[in-house]
Specification:
Length: 165
């Protein structure tokens, strides 16, 4: 079943996670590094934010703003000269907000084997031109993994909002 069929009303049809899946490739240059020659965390965080924002924007069809980034850890170093792959996927769409996961991997130059270096969960809010939150299109998970991601995101959202309160 296509998830891109235009809806009869103003409400867009539910959209599959694959529709907004985002892949970005970067090269870690000296200006992206800290004094020991590995990635400067703030640079990686800005790439994560951009990758997540593109996935959110592809899902919503509008500019979505970052409301929150969950606690995140840098799991493995990225060195100058490494190719860095970022992937962003919408895990769940709530009323006006979305949970987007961004994974960061470094790629071995010879084997192209990938190592997970960071895994981030971001919340984006779908906004209108005046900056007011507006309903986001529903998400239509198609695989068991995508359905599980929705369930996990629902639990995390409850914890996230409790923390905010
Ligand atoms: C994010 C923002 C739009 C929320 O606005 P608001 O007036 O609090 O709006 P609401 O209370 O209606 O919340 C809107 C949605 O955001 C979610 N939200 C708000 N703050 C959140 C937080 N800290 N964590 C997770 N979700 C959050 C709400 O749960 C709601 O989602 P839902 O509609 O799916 O239930 C507003 O705080 C804002 O503009 N912040 C600055 C965003 C920004 O500049 N980002 C770039 C930073 S560099």
């Amino acid at each position: 079943m296509s998830t891109d069929t235009p809806a009869q009303s103003d409400t867009p049809a539910p959209r599959a996670p694959s529709r907004s899946f985002t892949e970005m490739t970067e090269l870690l240059l000296p200006q992206h590094a800290n004094v020991v020659g590995t990635a400067f965390g703030g640079v990686v965080l800005s790439w994560i934010d951009v990758c997540g924002a593109i996935a959110a924007q592809r899902h919503c069809g509008r500019i979505a703003v970052t409301a929150a980034i969950d606690d995140m850890q840098f799991l493995a170093p990225i060195r100058v000269g490494d190719v860095v792959r970022l992937t962003g996927r919408v895990n769940a769409a709530f009323r006006t907000s979305l949970e987007v996961e961004v994974q960061v991997e470094r790629e071995d130059r010879k084997t192209m084997e990938r190592t997970l270096c960071a895994d981030a969960l971001l919340t984006f809010v779908n906004r209108d031109e005046e900056g007011h939150p507006v309903p986001s299109p529903a998400l239509a998970p198609e695989t068991d993994d995508e359905r599980q991601r929705v369930q996990d995101a629902i639990e995390r959202r409850a914890a996230r909002l409790a923390k905010k309160r």
